[in-house]
Amino acid sequence: MEGKMLEMFEVGPCEDDYQLGFLIGQRFSNQIRSRLAGDLILQNQLLPFARTPQGQPLIKALSETNQKKFPRYWAELLGTAKGSGVPVLDIILINFRKEILPFISNAAMNSNADSTVDCSDVLIVSDLMALAAHNEDANVALVGHTYLIKGKLSNGLSFIAYTYAGELPSCAFGFNSHGLAFTLNSVPPTEREIVPAAIGRNFVSRDLLEATSIADALARIHSSEVSVGHSYNLIDIQTRMILNVETASRSRVSVHEVGATPFFHANMYLHLQVQQVHDENSISRQKRAAVLPQGSKMDFLSLLGDTEDAKYPIYMTGPTLYTLCTAVIDLDGKTLTIIEGNPKKRKVSHVFSMSSKNLNCNLVYTGKGTCR
Fold first, then answer.
1. Contact, 274 vs 194, CB < 8 A?
2. How many other CB atoms are found less than 10 A from the CB of residue 157?
3. Are 366 and 336 a contacting pair, CB within 8 Å?
4. Could you tell me if residue 101 is left (phi over 0), alpha (psi between -120 and 50 degrees) or otherwise beta?
5. How much is the pLDDT for 164?
6. Whole-angstrom distance, CA of residue 333 vs CA of residue 341
7. DSSP state of 300
8. For residue 367, what pLDDT is reported?
9. Which is nearest to 54 in space by CA: 98, 100, 110?
10. Residue 360: predicted pLDDT
11. Strand pairing category for 347-353 and 8-11
12. At residue 307, does pLDDT exceed 60?
């Protein structure tokens, strides 16, 4: 299964955030409409729940909380819906899907793959290399429904964000003109650990695209009263630092600074003490990574391309979960590379420079090549 070539859209500066979202929605209206039509979790669970007496107040409260905390990003979300010509409710639901699914009866059983399994990362900061390598895993419905946004803001900041169709940039990975990047890993707190109608993870990661430093990124994470929690890999090329930040509701945060020992993170909490769902997929990937070589960039790519465990491979090819791409952030080379297909084959689609302040020359290479 292969998706279409990953497209990039340059947008901004805009007169306001609504227009930014509108232009993105207008540009990718076909992908957004197609994604919504084929998203079985949206069609079979989220939309029916939104019509129930239990769902309506939860969605209303989620909307009000996040609009109050992040009015600019809420306007961007509304603009995306208008520009793409789809119902606002659909856009709201896909952006809050992981804050809503735990409250749907039998959601854990029916949509476990979507709600708990997203992405694998291997990270290192040693004297010899400083790298973050990330598999972007998602439901197969997302194949062909992602794009790159190059946003330019009126304050001079620019960012690149790998974006799921209809969602805020970015629930996946991105970087900005301050040399700050992030990748994300979903984590599975139990239902009792979740606070309903608090801040959504898509809004926190959208906010990280505007962080001015790794300290500012941490402050933005700390200040968000999240509903579900997440794992953030913060990467700062200026200070040559990588932090893994695990979060949960009720302002719980744990920070691990990555050092010379390679650090693999799948989709379970590793250092924040939280009651979590036992996820055999994530546990299997964690165990498999522990026995694979991790001494070089090529080792990292081979690890992320590993398919030895047929039931729970690190590199996923369906039928439910699919590795959309692999991102490699080289802190010393100051580049972000996107690889299509199995990263073992090193088929590069994009290489971005992270050292340019205005990102005018950020697309260093695009096409078919190898990751060196």
1. no
2. 20
3. no
4. alpha
5. 98
6. 23
7. H
8. 44
9. 100
10. 43
11. unpaired
12. yes
Q: 73, 207 in Cβ contact below 8 A?
A: yes
Q: For residue 266, what are its two tokens?
A: 């799948």
CA dist 204 and 224 (Å) reads: 7
**At 296, phi and psi to the nearest 5?**
-155, 170
pLDDT at residue 109, rounded to an integer? 40
> Given pLDDT bands bounded at 50, 70 and 90, which one contains residue 345?
very high
Q: E-assigned strands of 196-317? A: 231-236, 241-248, 252-257, 263-265
User: Residues with Cβ < 8 Å from 282, sequence gap 6 or more?
Assistant: 116, 117, 188, 266, 267, 268
| pLDDT at residue 3 tops 90 | no
Q: Are 243 and 209 in contact (CB under 8 A)?
A: no
State the average pLDDT over residues 188-192: 93
- Find out whether 41 and 104 touch, Cβ atoms under 8 Å: no
Is 82:22 a contact under the CB 8 Å cutoff? yes
Give the span between the Cα atoms of 84 and 81, in whole angstroms: 5
Q: Are 91 and 74 in contact (CB under 8 A)?
A: no
Checking phi first, is residue 13 left (phi over 0); if not, alpha (psi -120 to 50) or beta?
A: beta
pLDDT for position 106: 65
Q: What percentage of the chain carries pLDDT values higher than 90?
A: 88
pLDDT computed for residue 362 by the predictor: 40
Tell me the CA distances in angstroms from 294 to 264, 274, 346, one per residue in order: 10, 28, 17
pLDDT of residue 264: 98
Tell me 15's DSSP state. S
Ramachandran quadrant class, 273 (left: phi over 0; alpha: psi -120 to 50; beta: rest): beta
Structure tokens at 117: 């399994």
Q: State the average pLDDT for the chain.
A: 92
Whether 369 shows a pLDDT value over 80: the answer reads no
Please state the separation of Cα 305 from the chain's center in Å: 19
Closest by alpha carbon to 95, among 118, 69, 62? 62
Residue 123 to residue 270: CA distance in whole angstroms: 14
Alpha-carbon dihedral angle through residues 36, 27, 324, 103, given to the nearest 10 degrees: -30
Is the pLDDT at 340 greater than 60, yes or no?
yes
* pLDDT for 357 beyond 90: no
- Give the type of residue at 249: S
